Amino acid sequence: VQLVESGGGLVQAGGSLRLSCAASGFTFSSYDMTWVRQAPGKGPEWVSAINTGGESTYYADSVKGRLTISRDNAKNTLYLQMNNLKPEDTALYYCARVPYGSIWSPGVELDYWGQGTQVTVSS
């Protein structure tokens, strides 16, 4: 199983970024997927989740209306479109897999994580 994030970078407040997570080594379309972020000195914070077919999406209140999760099962890729970024969005962003047979919920334990991509938002 491999999850490789990309698309992070330095952006000014109000700007946009699109993160990608390329999945391999498993049947991507069979798993719910999530984005989790970790800011310096803080614990992991769940950001967003999506079900296997992409019909159902979930967001933390802090990002609702600004971030959009999506997936392309034909390309085995998960996305996070980030608009109107704020300095408090600065963090290392990880994509992570929900275990097979599990449906995403706030307390579900994730079984595989990528290495992360850094997002830095300047004020």
Draw up the topology in text:
Layout: E1 2-6, E2 9-12, E3 17-24, E4 33-38, E5 44-50, E6 57-59, E7 67-72, E8 77-82, E9 91-97, E10 112-113, E11 117-122
Parallel strand pairs: 2-11
Antiparallel strand pairs: 1-3, 3-8, 4-5, 4-9, 5-6, 7-8, 9-10, 9-11
In summary, what is this structure?
With 123 residues, this protein is mainly β. It has strands at 2-6, 9-12, 17-24, 33-38, 44-50, 57-59, 67-72, 77-82, 91-97, 112-113, 117-122. The strands form two sheets. Strands 2, 4, 5, 6, 9, 10 and 11 form a seven-stranded mixed β-sheet that branches. A four-stranded antiparallel β-sheet has the order 1-3-8-7, with no helix packed on it.
Number of helices: 0
- What string gives the helices and strands in order? EEEEEEEEEEE
> What summary fits the major beta sheet?
7 strands, mixed
Q: What value does the Rg take, in angstroms?
A: 13 Å
Structural shape: globular
Low-confidence stretches: none
Helix content: under 10%
Structural class: mainly beta
* Number of DSSP-assigned strands: 11
Strand residues, percent: over 45%
Question: What is the arithmetic mean of pLDDT?
Answer: 96
Q: Distance between termini? A: 37 Å
